[in-house]
Amino acid sequence: QVQLVESGGGLVQAGGSLRLSCVASGSGYRFRMRVMGWFRQAPGKERENVAAIDWGGDNTYYADSVKGRFTVSRDNAKNTVYLQMNTLKAEDAAVYYCAAQRLPLPWSGTMRSADFDVWGQGTQVTVSS
Fold this sequence. Notes:
7-stranded mixed β-sheet; 4-stranded antiparallel β-sheet; mainly beta; 129 residues
């Protein structure tokens, strides 16, 4: 059973920082081979792309709304992907989801949620103004 488990969400003041983590587990997961992504969904809004990282960590993608503030990284030895979020704004408040791109899809430089076939349960990020 493949699983992605996010953690690190919480309540933070505007301008503050949070670091989200996503740990992958399960036999045959081949974490190291997968593009990993972060998505978010706010109440009443559609799910949106946030960031993605290729298997080696050499290539990243960021939505325009988070460029310069968020950083995605991964530690394949720990089967973990991270999302460092700085200078948080009220509009960043959402449930954040970690997802793994379907194999053998390669790095494309962008994100399509339909390409991701394993999803975590989400972690809530609340930003107070």
